[in-house]
Design a protein that fits this description.
The protein is α/β, with parallel strands linked by helices. The protein has 31 helices and 23 strands.
């Protein structure tokens, strides 16, 4: 759904709910500006008229009270927009903008299932025929979960008048399933509804309200949050009014979250006859409790399961190779207004103003084109996703100027960039690409789905997005395997800007890395471990290669200490707005030098947390989390002997958030292949054998290419040979000149009681710190009977030195007092 359609759809909802079914008169220009239309082209006129008809709206001249087209009115004229409830107009897609009636088309559905999808149909048939109530369909990203499930449900539920409730956690997922249903409403799938209609109702903060739920709706598509807030409406208006209910849970691995549990229980306890189908690419996350709960919601064994490896091996999907490219373009808070930052963090896609900020970075476009030119022979036919129409035009022009056979496809008539495009021109460009007459094809969103381009070998992602759906659609354009007349390999090249932790953009590799079933596929596990580690370490390697950054401490470490021993992996539920939830995928790399600190953090988090949460049901507020973060950093991480790579505040906050919700620490995954990537071994071979430059170059090239072109180093260094060579040269330099590497032997603090009084509290071992903290509060309460500090309020206080240590004060009970955090900050080093 385009931004314009979404705005007109919302307008239709507002007018439909108004008392007189119309919007008060105002100039047409004001509406156009609200819709971000500043040049009313012929194409835009057609688009507006089509959307008005689709959503039952009429554009009326105020002076004549006559219906007009958007192209037949002066922008300055005042207009009235009316909502019509003309039920006799069978051509209209939506009488009510959110209560859709879809005509069942004659004949066969043109979209044909793959053999594995036919197999899934049979398994689903067999499962639900045997009175099983709850099942799970597991298909990897890009393998058509939505198509498989919708086509089966239409045939086996809607076709026999069984009602469907389809729930998801994001607005875009609701739109996606609605679009899929409208594409598949054919006689061959719905024979009992021949020459008839099926009804769809969308319920969410952006669609219809739960109070308007219609008991006769065939398919109720709703956000889990909206239904959770309105369970009584769901029960009384739908569940109690219909005997047979099929509950579909999209992204079912989230069903363990609190937002889903009440809803699932309501459906199972209220419905007379119900079934549940969960759809997921990642059936079991890492948490043991979640696995247990998922097994209760669904049958522990999936109804049907295909993993990414199987579909790659049988040629249905191409094998994806993820290549991140740093643009060296950075954005910080200073680059955006408060309003832009708010839009950036709340929207799943980039707001237009921010897209323009990126497009203005001319070096970024040059980098994209130069990267293609360097790898042209490997990448072959490349589909490029640009930020917007202007960006598509710029990239295409730059490619053509460098001798690349390129074209672009964009919607509408873009006279503002001096280019006229239409459907015929787009059709010709797509055909030229399909027939190998073009090397690159640049587009915005026009080729995310529906267009068959099996010869696409590479996808360039030049636009960041938070939308998993959009990312999946873009990546999926290159994943047509040889069985589908596509390619064996697919290169997914993402151009990564530095957003200074402002936004957690979707990482294309993470769509697939977590979907591999590691249980009995050791080689796959090793490969994807390495690819994941590589993605996360790119920043570190980039820093070492950057001569402007002081990296002496990190360079001094043995090479193996720059390789993580493993990571904590978990997901966090993040509320975007009243309607959308985002699930942030968190992976915190752990290095040898951090291991003990994280172990202590894990062992003590319950004690620290309990100072803030006594009833074990509370969710910490931002101030409480900030204080807990300070204490954790002071206690475990600020005194590390080897602090690099730096442990980010965000990583620690993510772990605190996870503990806050689940009351347990995330699961740790060890990097089993770590020892293989000790670059020092290669450096020692060159050093010990005193290789000449030519021999050294030959040895490095041989290691880089590996046996039969299979190299562990390519995976580890994300195909960036420069990082590989720089690391080897650094280790050779240290072997040749050990005297130039400063030693950072920070003496470890011995916690002898006599020494403690001269140390600040954050350097005390945890058990002694907890002990003296309690004594300070006890002493205070004894001496100040009228100013008692209750246990539940102690999190608000810090332990302060009455006489600061800088002025000779000691860390002894007599010199310590509790002080509210903000007062302690004001006091500073004063007595």
């Amino acid at each position: 759904m385009t931004e314009l359609e979404r705005k007109i759809q919302r307008l239709a909802e507002i007018i439909a709910e108004s008392k007189n079914k119309q919007k008060r008169s105002r100039s047409f220009d004001k509406y156009l500006r609200e819709w971000n239309i500043f040049r009313l082209t012929e194409q835009k006129v057609k688009e507006i008229d089509k959307l008005f008809d689709k959503y039952g709206l009429l554009l009326i001249k105020k002076d004549t009270n006559q219906k007009v087209s958007a192209g037949k009115i002066n922008r300055k004229e005042k207009v009235i927009i009316k909502y019509t409830n003309d039920k006799d107009n069978t051509n209209r897609t939506a009488i009510n903008p959110f209560n859709l009636y879809v005509n069942v088309a004659n004949g066969n559905c043109p979209k044909k299932p793959y053999p594995f999808q036919l197999e899934a149909y049979k398994k689903l048939d067999d499962f639900y025929k045997t009175n099983n109530k709850k099942g799970l369909l597991v298909l990897p990203t890009g393998a058509g979960k939505t198509f498989t499930s919708v086509s089966w449900l239409l045939r086996n539920a809607t076709n026999i008048n069984k009602k469907i409730i389809w729930i998801a956690h994001r607005h875009e997922l609701l739109e996606q399933v609605k679009d899929e249903i409208t594409k598949l409403a054919y006689e061959s799938i719905l024979p009992n509804r021949k020459n008839g209609k099926i009804s769809i109702q969308l319920i969410s903060g952006s669609h219809d309200k739960a109070i308007n739920i219609n008991k006769d709706t065939d398919i109720l598509i709703a956000s889990v949050q909206t239904l959770n807030r309105n369970l009584e409406y769901l029960k009384n208006k739908y569940l109690k009014q219909n005997n047979d209910i099929f509950l579909v849970i999209d992204e079912a691995h989230h069903a363990t979250a609190r937002t889903y549990r009440k809803l699932i229980e309501t459906v199972t306890n209220t419905s007379k006859n119900f079934n549940i189908l969960g759809l997921t690419a990642t059936p079991f996350r890492t948490d043991k409790k979640e696995k247990s709960y998922l097994a209760k919601v669904f049958n522990p064994k999936p109804i049907f399961s295909k993993d990414l490896r199987d579909l790659i091996i049988d040629g249905t999907l191409s094998e994806p190779y993820f290549i991140p490219v740093k643009t060296n373009i950075s954005f910080t808070k200073k680059d955006f207004s408060e309003k832009e930052l708010s839009l950036l963090q709340s929207n799943f896609d980039l707001p237009d103003k921010i897209k323009h900020k990126i497009i203005e970075q001319k070096d970024r476009n040059k980098l994209i084109v130069s990267h293609y030119l360097k790898n042209k022979n490997k990448y072959k036919q490349t589909l490029i996703f640009a930020l917007n129409q202007i960006h598509a035009f710029q990239l295409n022009k730059l490619l053509q100027e460098n001798g690349v056979k390129s074209n672009f496809v964009i919607s509408g008539t873009q006279s503002f960039i001096g280019v006229n495009t239409d459907k015929d021109a787009n059709h010709k460009a797509i055909n030229d690409f399909r027939e190998n007459k073009l090397e690159t094809l640049v587009n915005v969103n026009i080729l995310t789905e529906g267009t068959d381009l099996p010869n696409t070998q590479t996808v360039f992602l030049t636009r960041p997005t938070k939308s998993k759906t959009l990312m999946t659609q873009m990546v999926g354009r290159a994943l047509r395997g040889v069985k589908s007349k596509g390619t064996k390999k697919a290169y997914i090249v993402s151009f990564i800007d530095d957003w200074s932790n402002l936004v957690a953009w979707q990482n294309p590799a993470e769509l697939y890395v977590d979907e591999i079933d590691f249980s009995d596929k050791q080689k796959d596990r090793q490969k994807y471990q390495v690819q994941f580690i590589s993605i996360e370490l790119i920043n570190q390697f980039s820093m070492l290669a950057n001569k402007l950054v002081n990296t002496e401490i990190l360079e001094a470490y043995p090479a193996i200490m720059r390789i993580p021993i493993g990571w904590y992996s978990f997901q966090l539920e993040k509320r975007i707005n009243k309607d959308d939830i985002d699930y942030k995928s968190c992976k915190v790399l752990i290095f040898e030098q951090h291991k003990e600190a994280f172990n202590e953090f894990k062992d003590n988090i319950e004690k620290l947390y309990n100072r803030f949460d006594y009833d074990k049901n509370k969710i910490l507020n931002e101030n409480e989390k900030a204080d807990l973060l300070d204490e954790i950093k002071n206690r475990f991480f600020d005194t590390l002997e080897y602090p690099e790579p730096h442990i980010s505040n965000q990583d620690l906050i993510d772990i605190i958030d996870y503990y806050d919700i689940n009351k347990e620490f995330p699961v740790f995954f060890s990097f089993e292949e770590r020892e293989k990537f000790d670059i020092l071994k290669l450096a020692k071979h060159i050093y010990a054998n005193d290789l000449k430059r030519s021999q050294e170059r030959e040895f490095i090239n041989k290691e880089w290419e590996g046996l039969e072109g299979k190299s562990i180093w390519k995976d580890f260094y994300s195909n960036n040979k420069n990082y590989f060579i720089n690391d080897i040269e650094l280790e050779i330099k240290k072997l040749n000149h050990p005297e130039i590497i400063e030693k950072f032997d920070i003496p470890k603090i011995e916690y002898v009681k006599e020494k403690l009084e001269s140390l600040p509290l954050h350097l005390w071992p945890n058990e002694l710190y907890v002990e003296i903290r309690e004594k300070v509060f006890d002493k205070w309460n004894k001496e100040n009977p009228n100013e008692q500090i209750d246990k539940k309020d102690r999190w608000k206080y810090q332990i302060d030195h009455i006489i600061p240590m800088a002025k000779g004060g000691k860390t002894v009970l007599e010199n310590l007092q509790p002080l509210l955090t903000y007062k302690n900050k004001i006091k500073g080093d004063k007595i």
